[in-house]
Amino acid sequence: LNADHFYSDANRRIFDSVVQLQQAGRPVDVVSVAGYLRDRERLQQVGGTPYLAQLADATPAVAHVEAHAKTIREKWRLRQLIATCQRFAAEGYGDCGETQAFIDKAEQSVFDIARVPEGSSIVPVKDAINKAFEIMSEAAKRGGRTTGIETGFFSVDGKTSGLHPGDLYIVAGRPGMGKTSYVLNIAANVASPRAGMDAEGQPIEQPGHGVAFFSLEMPREQLAARVLAIEARVDVSRLRSGNMRPDDWNRLTDAAARLGRLPLWLDDTPGLTLLDLRAKVRRLQAEISRGESATGTDKLGLVIIDYLQLMQGRAGVQSREQEISELSRGLKGLAKEMGVPVMALSQLNRSVETRAAKDKRPQLSDLRESGAIEQDADAIFFIYRDEYYFKDSPDQGIAEIIIAKQRNGPTGTCKVRFQSEFTRFDNLAPDEYEFNEYDDFQEFDAAGADPGMGP
Q1: What are the extents of the domains in the chain?
Q2: What is the largest CA-CA distance in the chain?
Q3: In 3D, which of 404, 414, 452 has the Cα closest to residue 434?
Q4: pLDDT at position 433, please?
Q5: Does 217 qualify as catalytic in the annotation?
Q6: Which residues make Cβ contacts (< 8 Å) with residue 238, sequence separation at least 6?
Q7: Positive or negative torsion for Cα 118, 122, 127, 129
Q8: Residue range 130-148: mean pLDDT, rounded
């Protein structure tokens, strides 16, 4: 709370006087505040000593001071909103320039008010430690299960403990590796119903988490066809040509019915800006919170962007590197602001292709405009399929999910099944894992995960 949050000029001056006295280590009461204001020839401007005495007599219980301070702050935010709306309403009657730019400017001004932090982010270390213990206790109660949102790929979830609110995840790979298909698999998994327990400890089916998928590269109809092929296990080439078998139609119909019930939203707006993205996510989150989504979900659990380099930066940016830097920083800010994990796909540069070695696995330095992305991301996943480069590879039908960076966990490589005809990723069977990965599988499976889960 600060002096500007008060509506009355007199109350602003009085509050500022109280703050100045307190910071100087002097007592704060009617006499000291009156003296402070008198010395500066402001006492009469605020109503004199009688007004100060009146305020002191009307002061509510100290125990409720935080609630009263919050009320003052909220009223200030409402006044800011009213003033902003009045200003743009007046400008709208005049020459406001290009309409969409004017709308974006107005929306940004409103979001700036919405993003004003509720209070101080500075807390005693004791409070932070207590919160950390709460998180660790909740993790212990899960008996080793993921503390975040499960992706459905237990080898990955075993290393990351799922997707965590406020974190930015980058999924990168060269064209043909299956980036879009991989995140579509994750989207369907996250949105699918999951097993849970009611208050009495009885097993129940809980609705999946809401997923917002923003595709800047592929129309939503193609996305829908892709996820249908994944779910129904129908050959993509037959789907495209229309040369389908009778059983294909049956599987597609069943898959369409299952997918149609999921809290999964697709958006194919080209040239999406951070402002557009934030506005769409906020609206969807509000719709879900109000129970208007008709899917049964109670929260937005994941935001996916396909892909980062196709987003549009603000005008006037001097370089592509600066533009990508602002976009990646904005996506991290979106994750924290909305309290959801954000997963963005990213391109790799061509250095992978020109690498002379037999190992074509990506490295962090291969990320296009990599500096800011590497810094802002909480975790970076590379998708690599050895069979794509080497036809005689022993890893036929195998994809590697390389965790190249993880701020709060280990790095390493996880293997999953890739069925190219369906563009579908799946968990491997237990006997297909290497020793260290099988250990992860046993721990994850013992905690109650389904090793066959997938969209």
Answers
A1: 3-114, 147-446
A2: 92
A3: 414
A4: 55
A5: yes
A6: 244, 245, 248
A7: positive
A8: 70
Q: Is the pLDDT of residue 158 over 50?
A: yes
**Separation in Å, CA 422 to CA 65, 238, 413, 417, 426:** 60, 10, 23, 12, 11
The token duo for 50 is 């009688």
Q: What is the C-alpha separation between 213 and 277, in angstroms, rounded? A: 11
From 91, 107, 217, 374, active-site residue: 217
Strands 379-384, 168-172: pairing is: parallel
Q: What is the pLDDT of residues 268-291, one digit of tens each?
A: 988 888 888 888 888 888 888 877
Dihedral pair phi/psi, residue 260, rounded to 5°: -65, -20
Q: Which residue has the higher pLDDT, 194 or 165?
A: 165
Exposure class string for 272-304: b at 16+ Cβ within 10 A, else e: bbbbbbbbbbbebbeebeeeebebebeebbbbb
The string of pLDDT tens digits covering residues 406-430 is: 998 899 999 999 988 888 998 987 6
pTM exceeding 0.85: no
> 3-state SS of the chain?
CCHHHCCCHHHHHHHHHHHHHHHCCCCCCHHHHHHHHHHCCCCHHHCHHHHHHHHHHCCCCHHHHHHHHHHHHHHHHHHHHHHHHHHHHHHHCCCCCCHHHHHHHHHHHHHHHHCCCCCCCCCCHHHHHHHHHHHHHHHHHCCCCCCCECCCCHHHHHHHCCECCCCEEEEECCCCCCHHHHHHHHHHHHHCCEEEECCCCCEEEECCCEEEEEECCCCHHHHHHHHHHHHHCCCHHHHHHCCCCHHHHHHHHHHHHHHHCCCEEEECCCCCEHHHHHHHHHHHHHHHHCCCCCCCCCCEEEEEEECHHHCECCCCCCCHHHHHHHHHHHHHHHHHHHCCCEEEEECECCHHHHCCCCCCCCCHHHECCHHHHHHHCCEEEEEECHHHHCCCCCCCCEEEEEEEEECCCCCEEEEEEEECCCCEEECCCHHHCCHHHHHHHHHHHHCCCCCCCCC
> Judging by DSSP bridges, how do beta strands 168-172 and 342-346 pair with one another?
parallel
3-114 and 147-446 have identical folds = no
Tokens of 210: 């809401």
CATH 3.40.50.300 fits 147-446, yes or no: yes
Asked if 266 and 175 touch (Cβ cutoff 8 Å), the reply is: no
- pLDDT at position 358 over 70: yes
Centre a 10 Å sphere on the Cβ of residue 169 and count the other Cβ atoms it contains. 25
CATH 1.10.3720.10 fits 3-114, yes or no: no
For the record, the structure tokens of 20 come out as 């100045």
